């Protein structure tokens, strides 16, 4: 069996003196899996996602993603890890308003120093496959929510990441756009992309996820 | 504490960087303003007070005694515009000897029955006015001899010094009773009449000249041998302190511009950064006027602290400069007037208040709903073309992102640009000023010789040498390493109509290499030709092409002026062929490149054995005034550069706070801390470069404007060579000063941006 993409072992994260945001969580995700993390507000979903993306460090336990131990990495190494192995999709898209759609998509590749020609060709393919080629020169402010999230997905995939992390990807979308994104993520999953979804959207979890994890008060309450 | 008070206090605490920046900027501006305005007032007030009290002469006219009668001169008092006149007084130039046999410098003696009158009320500083024909009163500023000392006139008559006096119009170096004239007049004594006038209007040179023309028109043609305006006397009296004023005014203006710029952008930036907070405050019932008051009060709090600091600093820095003025007038009140300090500080606070008020008006006008909605809508679409273009530049992506940033916030960019340009202009100006002052000092010193050959030191400086000049020059010429040499002798001289002594320098050989700078005309070449200093030409009313008669040791010498030499004193230079009996008092030698001055001097001294001459390497002396000016320049430049850097820092902090969320997105997408720093620095590097390129010509323009003004304050015209101080290499270095200032200002914010936690930044609205 291939090595897991994610291996969390006894991970605890607490802020100040309050109760832990994550409490002794262990989790393994294998390549090609799509795992949906569900739970109410304050259950630790975003903290888990931040730890997986190398945006935060645990107080205890180990976080291994794509063979890299993240809790030991400094800021620069975390950034390099992210652009090499992780694609991020946010609830509110987080596209840069002053860059065109194409420039937004290209940005992670450019930060990674990838060859320009290859990146542009890959970006063009992604935009084409996501049906947004006609918006390549447009600015994000002119797009609908669903289109913006497609751009965010293209941006997340530009560096061919081992892991796609999505934080409430349908949370800011209307029903039709949400459905659109659900199909998109499902397609990605079926193409073999490893995905971790953090969501309140049960329909999204049911449609895409091969496995669901329920968090409550920082602990894994249930796993299916 | 009222609700508004709490808002102000929390605003000051929340915006520490901006508070410090406003305080420092205000302090810098107030310091420069207090210095500029304070010295301007302080340098002129003692003279003006004394001039008014003594009813000083607006015009002092000197005439020939043979071609005009006393009644004709008395009648000139009725010329149009004359409101009061005194004279005619007989005036003679006499060289007294002390009883010990020591000769005094020539003195301009004026015969007056009493010190009072309608014009030029001479003020006794010690002793009394002469009561007998063998008594005299000395002008305090000319020769220091205590009362009771007896002096011998050329005819043998002895005079007793009975007091010292001061004429603010500088009309004489000594006074005697009219009945003493007979004992003083004699062969070789220059004489004339002196008339003193006050005019109804004499505030400007044009008005004084108009008065002079009216007076001269009443007299027979050609009788006036000299006419001196009170404005010239005033200029010479205040020049030491006045020389500081133009460059301090320049720095004060730079400080004020910088203060307006930085305070405006700080407050405008605070409003921009706190738009949502303003919306919440307004939603809670804070009125628009209350919001404006809160922001103005926050700016004024910091500015008041800065103004107090600037006031103290400005007064402290002015002390050593004013000490010189104090000595000049014997005044005990040479401090910066309290009202100047108050005006400078109050004026600066008013500037801050108005600037802050204009910037804060936007906060008051913001609609509550719009203010609260900030952060939920897309930002303005400015500068997208630049982002598009930068994405295609062949530079690392973070650098491209940084380079495009200035176009997204044009107003803030212009503020950074102006801050850097102002700092760059100040540095360029200060560098040029320092270089020009050094050249001016060298030109005034007129001594770039490597070795000086002089006689027996015990005889004192300036004592004529006993050695045969031809033999001495031949020995110097024969010495290996000699490149150029000349001999010079200095003697005191007088020009009728000018109370100050005139320095007469006679030169043997070619001296043009020795630091002499020509303002106009050419160096003397033929017998009878001379070059004169600007002050002498002005006092004598002479121009190039005119001739003046200088009395050297009682002998009149007619000198044809062929050029104006750069020199601050009353001086004239001519050849030994013109004044033949002036033997050199020293020789100056320039050495060929690579010759050691010490070794050369030692060898030459040996070669000169038997001629009572010794050679020594020439020492360098630095004018203390130059040291003060350069110290002030360096201090003020550093202050303005620091303010420019702080301005950049402040605006970058505001900018980064505005887009901290975007920063988080960049970092989430894989931007490393190093790339973040590169992006932030690139965002100001281009602006810094442009600011530097704009600031350098502005600084050069200031230099071209201010340095001649400084020289004019000292009564000098500057040759162009003393202003051409910017070479290509210094200019390139100065242009790079702009990006360096921006870089230094950007370092802290860039570090802050690099350290910002990605997760925290992403949560920021």
Give keywords.
heterodimer, A: about 220 residues, alpha/beta, Rossmann fold, six-stranded mixed sheet, four-stranded antiparallel sheet, 7 helices, about 25% strand, globular, B: about 775 residues, alpha+beta, 4 domains, eleven-stranded mixed sheet, six-stranded mixed β-barrel, MacB-like_ATP-bd (chain A), P-loop_NTPase (chain A), ATP-binding (chain A), ATP hydrolysis activity (chain A), nucleotide-binding (chain A)
Report what the structure shows.
The complex is a heterodimer of chains A (224) and B (765). Chain A has one domain (6-223): P-loop containing nucleotide triphosphate hydrolases (Rossmann fold), CATH 3.40.50. The longest helix of chain A has 16 residues, at 175-190. Chain A has 224 residues and is α/β, with parallel strands linked by helices. The two termini of chain A are 21 Å apart. Chain A has helices at residues 45-53, 75-85, 101-111, 116-129, 145-157, 175-190, 202-208; strands at 6-13, 22-29, 34-38, 60-65, 68-69, 86-89, 163-167, 194-198, 211-216, 219-223. By secondary structure, chain B is an alpha+beta fold. Chain B has four domains: 1-56 and 234-377, no CATH class; 65-222, no CATH class; 380-446 and 621-765, no CATH class; 448-617, no CATH class. Helix content of chain B is 52%, strand content 18%. Chain B contains 22 helices and 21 strands. In chain B, a hairpin with a 2-residue loop joins strand 13 and strand 14. Chain B is elongated. The chains are: A alpha/beta (224), B alpha+beta (765). Chains A and B meet through helix 2 and helix 3 of A and helix 12, helix 13, helix 19, helix 20 and helix 22 of B.
């Amino acid at each position: 069996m291939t090595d897991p993409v994610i291996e969390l072992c006894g991970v605890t994260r607490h802020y100040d003196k309050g109760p832990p945001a994550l409490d002794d969580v262990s989790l393994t995700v294998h390549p090609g899996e799509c795992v949906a993390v569900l739970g109410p507000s304050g259950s630790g979903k975003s903290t888990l996602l931040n730890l997986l993306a190398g945006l935060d460090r645990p107080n205890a336990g180990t976080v291994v993603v794509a063979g890299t131990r993240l809790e030991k990495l400094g800021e620069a190494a975390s950034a390099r890890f992210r652009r090499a192995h992780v694609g991020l999709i946010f609830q509110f898209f987080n596209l840069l308003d002053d860059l065109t759609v194409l420039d937004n998509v290209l940005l992670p590749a450019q930060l990674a120093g990838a060859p320009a020609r290859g990146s542009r060709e890959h970006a063009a393919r992604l935009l084409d496959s996501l049906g947004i080629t006609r918006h390549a020169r447009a600015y994000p402010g002119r797009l609908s929510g669903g289109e913006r999230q497609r751009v965010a997905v293209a941006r997340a995939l530009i560096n061919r990441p081992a892991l796609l992390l999505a934080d409430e990807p349908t949370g800011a979308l209307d029903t039709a756009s949400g459905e659109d994104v659900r199909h998109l993520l499902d397609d990605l999953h079926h193409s073999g992309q490893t995905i971790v979804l953090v969501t309140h959207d049960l329909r999204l979890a049911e449609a895409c996820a091969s496995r669901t994890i329920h968090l409550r008060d920082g602990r894994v309450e249930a796993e299916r | 504490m009222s609700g508004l008070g709490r808002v102000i206090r929390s605003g000051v605490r929340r915006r520490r960087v901006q508070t410090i920046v406003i305080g420092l900027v205000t302090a810098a501006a107030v310091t420069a303003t207090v210095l500029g305005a304070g010295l301007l007032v302080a340098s002129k007030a003692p003279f003006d007070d004394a001039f008014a009290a003594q009813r000083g002469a607006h015009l002092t006219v000197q005439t020939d005694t043979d071609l005009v009668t006393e009644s004709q001169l008395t009648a000139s008092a009725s010329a149009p515009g004359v409101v009061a006149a005194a004279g005619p007084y007989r005036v003679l130039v006499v060289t007294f000897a002390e009883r010990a046999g020591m000769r005094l410098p020539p003195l301009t003696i004026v015969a007056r029955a009493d010190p009072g009158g309608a014009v030029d009320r001479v003020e006794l500083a010690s002793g009394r006015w002469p009561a007998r024909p063998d008594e005299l009163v000395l002008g305090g500023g000319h020769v220091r001899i205590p009362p009771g000392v007896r002096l011998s006139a050329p005819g043998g008559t002895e005079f007793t010094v009975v007091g010292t006096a001061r004429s603010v119009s500088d009309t004489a170096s000594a006074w005697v009773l009219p009945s003493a004239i007979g004992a003083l007049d004699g062969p070789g004594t220059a004489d004339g009449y002196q008339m003193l006038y006050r005019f109804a209007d004499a505030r400007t040179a044009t008005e004084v000249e108009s008065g002079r023309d009216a007076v001269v028109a009443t007299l027979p043609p050609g009788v006036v041998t000299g006419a001196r305006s009170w404005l010239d006397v005033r200029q010479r009296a205040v020049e030491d302190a006045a020389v500081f004023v133009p460059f301090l005014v320049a720095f004060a203006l730079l400080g004020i511009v910088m203060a307006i710029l930085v305070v405006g952008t700080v407050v405008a930036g605070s409003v921009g950064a706190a738009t949502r907070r303003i919306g919440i405050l307004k939603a809670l019932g804070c009125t628009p006027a209350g919001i404006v008051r809160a922001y103005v009060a926050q700016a004024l709090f910091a500015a008041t602290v800065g103004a107090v600091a600037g006031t103290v600093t400005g007064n402290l820095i002015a002390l050593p400069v004013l000490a010189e003025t104090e000595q000049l007038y014997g005044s005990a009140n040479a401090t910066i007037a309290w009202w100047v300090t108050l005006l400078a500080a109050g004026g600066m606070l008013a500037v801050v208040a108005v600037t802050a008020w204009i910037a804060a008006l936007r906060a008051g006008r913001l609609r509550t709903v719009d203010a609260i909605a900030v952060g939920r809508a897309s930002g303005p679409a400015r500068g997208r073309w630049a982002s598009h273009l930068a994405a295609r530049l062949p530079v690392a992506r973070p650098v491209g992102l940084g380079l495009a940033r200035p176009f997204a916030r044009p107003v803030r960019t212009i503020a950074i640009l102006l801050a850097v340009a102002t700092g760059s202009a100040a540095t360029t100006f200060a560098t040029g000023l320092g270089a020009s002052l050094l050249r001016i000092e060298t030109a005034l010193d007129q001594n770039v010789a490597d070795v000086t050959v002089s006689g027996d030191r015990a005889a004192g400086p300036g004592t004529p040498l006993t050695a045969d000049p031809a033999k001495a020059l031949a020995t110097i010429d024969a010495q290996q390493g000699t490149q150029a040499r000349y001999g010079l002798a200095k003697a005191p001289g007088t020009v009728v109509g000018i109370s100050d002594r005139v320095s007469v320098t006679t030169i043997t050989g070619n001296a043009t290499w020795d630091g002499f700078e020509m303002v106009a005309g050419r160096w003397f070449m033929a017998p009878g030709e001379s070059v004169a200093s600007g002050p002498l030409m002005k006092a004598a009313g002479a121009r190039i092409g005119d001739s003046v008669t200088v009395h050297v040791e009682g002998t009149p010498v007619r000198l044809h002026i062929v050029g104006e030499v750069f020199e601050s004193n009353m001086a004239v230079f001519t050849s030994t062929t013109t004044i033949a009996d002036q033997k050199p008092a020293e020789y100056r030698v320039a050495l060929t490149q690579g010759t050691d001055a010490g070794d050369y001097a030692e060898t030459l001294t040996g070669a000169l054995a038997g001629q009572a001459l010794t050679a020594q390497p020439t020492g360098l002396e630095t004018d203390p005034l130059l040291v003060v000016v350069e110290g002030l320049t360096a201090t003020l430049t550093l202050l303005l550069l620091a303010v420019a850097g702080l301005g950049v820092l402040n605006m970058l902090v505001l900018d980064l706070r505005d887009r901290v969320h975007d920063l988080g997105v960049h970092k989430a997408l894989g931007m490393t801390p190093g790339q973040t720093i590169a992006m932030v620095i690139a965002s100001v590097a281009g602006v810094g470069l442009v600011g530097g390129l704009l600031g350098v010509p502005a600084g050069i323009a200031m230099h071209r404007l201010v340095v001649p003004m400084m020289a004019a304050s000292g009564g000098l015209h500057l040759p162009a060579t003393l202003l051409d101080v910017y070479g290509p290499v210094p200019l390139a270095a100065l242009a790079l000063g702009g990006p360096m200032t921006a870089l230094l200002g950007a370092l802290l914010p860039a570090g802050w941006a690099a350290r910002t936690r990605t997760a925290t930044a992403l949560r920021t609205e």
